[in-house]
Write a structure and sequence with these properties.
Blueprint (H helix, E strand, L loop, with lengths): L1 H22 L62 E4 L2 E2 L5 E2 L2 E4 L5 E4 L2 E2 L5 E2 L2 E4 L6 E4 L2 E2 L5 E2 L2 E4 L5 E4 L9 E4 L6 E4 L2 E3 L3 E3 L2 E4 L5 E4 L2 E3 L2 E3 L2 E4 L6 E4 L2 E3 L2 E3 L2 E4 L5 E4 L2 E2 L5 E2 L2 E4 L14 H65 L2 H44 L1
Helix pairs in contact: 2-3
Length: 411
C-alpha cells in the first residue's frame, strides 16, 4: 500500500510542476544594450528661440480722448440756442478718408434710441440717428440728418399715403421730404409743410408767386427747429422789427411791425405749440429774478476746433497703443508657434521610441514589450493632435490680429 502511494506521488510531481510553470507570469525581457532615455514632457526637445522686442518706445504718456473738459478753454457760449440738454457728437472718418462733421443732438428723446454711426458686420457704413423703439402701422420713418448749422434734425414718422398728394423725398439735397399736391395751381408756389414742436405736422399751402412790396423768405433749419417761410417787406423802418406772418387754418395771417424794444418787457416770438396751434408773438413783463439758463451750449465752430485737436492727440496716442498691442499679439503668435513645434518634436521622439520598443519586442517575442511600444505610440499620436490644436490656435490668433488691424484702420 505504501509502495503504491509513493509511486503515485512521484508520478504526479512532474505534472504539478508543469502546471505551476504555466501559471507563473512571463519573466521580464532582458534590458537592451543601449536603452533609450525616458522622454521628459515638461522640457522642450530643442532650444526654444527667445524673441526680445524693445517696447519701451511704445509706452509714452497717453492723453485719453476725453468727454468732459473745461468749457472756458474751448470757446464762447451760444446765447441764442434753445435752453435744452444737447450732446456733442464728434466727427467720423470713413474708410475712403472722407469725414462726417460733428454736431449737437438732444441727449434723450422719448420713444427713441440713439445709434452712433458705425460699420456693420458687412463692412457697410451705418449713419447715426434716432431709431424708434416701436413701429407704427401705416406710417413710414424718415431718418434725420445733420443741419448746416451743426445741430441734428430729428427724424419723423409720416403717413404712408395721403389723398391727392405725393411724398417728395429730400434725396441728396438733404431734408426730411414733404407732401406736395398732385395737381398744380397756376401762378402759385407750393410751400411745403413741416414738423413743429412736439412732432406735429403742419400742412403746406399755396402762395402767390409775387406780392407787391414784399419778397418771399424761404424757410430754414436753425438749432434743429424749422423756421417757416414768410413774406418780408421790402421797406425798412428805424427802431422797428418785422414780425412774420403765418398760416392759421387755411388762411394766411399777415405779419406786422413792432418796436425793437420796450422798457421792462421781453418779446416772445410767435411759434406753433406742441398741439399744432399758433401762439401769437407778444410782450411779456421782464422779471428781475428771471431764472438762469439750465444748459449752456458752446458755439459749433469753437467746439468743433477744440474737439478736432483732442481727436488728433487721441488718434496719435491710439496709433502708438495699437502698435504696441500689435507687437504683443505677434509675440503671442510666435510663442504659440514655438510651443506647437516643441510638441511636434516630442511626438516624433515618442513615435520613434515606441517603434523601437515594439520592434525589439517582436524580435524577442515579448507581448508586454509590444503593448508598451503601442502605448507610447498612442501617446505620441495624442501629442501630435495637441500640436495640431496649437497650430489652429495660432491661425485663429492670426485672423484676430488681421481683424484688429482692419478695425484700427477704420477708426
Amino acid at each position: 500500500m505504501k509502495t503504491s502511494l509513493i509511486v503515485s506521488l512521484v508520478l504526479a510531481m512532474p505534472a504539478t510542476a508543469l502546471a505551476q510553470n504555466y501559471s507563473r507570469p512571463a519573466p521580464p525581457p532582458p534590458p537592451p544594450v543601449n536603452p533609450a532615455p525616458a522622454p521628459v514632457y515638461d522640457a522642450p526637445a530643442y532650444d526654444v528661440p527667445v524673441y526680445e522686442v524693445d517696447t519701451s518706445s511704445y509706452q509714452p504718456e497717453v492723453v485719453e480722448y476725453y468727454d468732459d473738459f473745461n468749457n472756458s478753454e474751448v470757446g464762447s457760449y451760444d446765447s441764442q440756442a434753445p435752453d435744452q440738454d444737447y450732446v456733442w457728437v464728434d466727427a467720423q472718418v470713413l474708410q475712403d478718408g472722407s469725414e462726417t462733421p460733428g454736431f449737437y443732438r438732444l441727449r434723450a428723446r422719448a420713444g427713441f434710441a440713439w445709434v452712433d454711426a458705425h460699420y456693420d458686420n458687412n463692412n457697410q457704413w451705418v449713419n447715426a440717428g434716432w431709431h424708434p423703439t416701436r413701429q407704427r402701422r401705416g406710417q413710414v420713418w424718415e431718418s434725420g440728418y445733420r443741419g448746416s448749422d451743426g445741430f441734428w434734425i430729428d427724424g419723423q414718422w409720416r403717413d404712408l399715403n395721403r389723398q391727392g398728394e405725393r411724398w417728395v423725398d429730400a434725396g441728396s439735397a438733404g431734408g426730411l421730404g414733404y407732401w406736395q399736391p398732385v395737381q398744380v395751381q397756376a401762378d402759385q408756389e407750393w410751400v411745403p409743410g413741416f414738423w413743429a414742436e412736439g412732432d406735429i405736422w403742419i400742412d403746406g399751402f399755396w402762395r402767390p408767386k409775387q406780392k407787391a412790396g414784399f419778397r418771399w423768405t424761404a424757410g430754414a433749419w436753425q438749432y434743429g427747429i424749422w423756421n417757416p417761410g414768410h413774406w418780408t417787406p421790402v421797406e425798412t423802418r428805424s427802431n422797428e422789427t418785422w414780425c412774420p406772418g403765418h398760416l392759421e387754418g387755411n388762411s394766411w395771417t399777415e405779419g406786422q411791425w413792432r418796436p425793437q424794444s420796450k422798457p421792462g418787457f421781453a418779446w416772445i416770438e410767435g411759434h406753433y405749440s406742441n398741439r399744432g396751434r399758433w401762439v401769437q408773438g407778444h410782450w411779456e413783463r421782464a422779471r428781475a429774478n428771471a431764472p438762469a439758463r439750465r444748459f449752456q451750449v458752446i458755439r459749433v465752430g469753437d467746439i468743433a476746433r477744440s474737439r478736432q485737436d483732442a481727436r488728433r492727440i487721441w488718434r496719435e496716442n491710439q496709433i502708438i497703443r495699437n502698435n504696441a498691442a500689435g507687437l504683443r499679439m505677434e509675440l503671442r503668435g510666435r510663442r504659440i508657434d514655438t510651443r506647437s513645434r516643441v510638441i511636434h518634436r516630442q511626438a516624433e521622439q515618442l513615435q520613434r521610441q515606441g517603434e523601437a520598443i515594439e520592434a525589439r519586442a517582436q524580435v524577442k517575442g515579448s507581448l508586454r514589450g509590444e503593448i508598451q511600444g503601442r502605448r507610447i505610440q498612442r501617446k505620441a499620436e495624442r501629442l501630435e493632435r495637441a500640436s495640431q490644436r496649437e497650430k489652429r490656435s495660432e491661425q485663429r490668433e492670426e485672423r484676430s490680429r488681421a481683424r484688429e488691424r482692419r478695425i484700427r484702420n477704420h477708426r
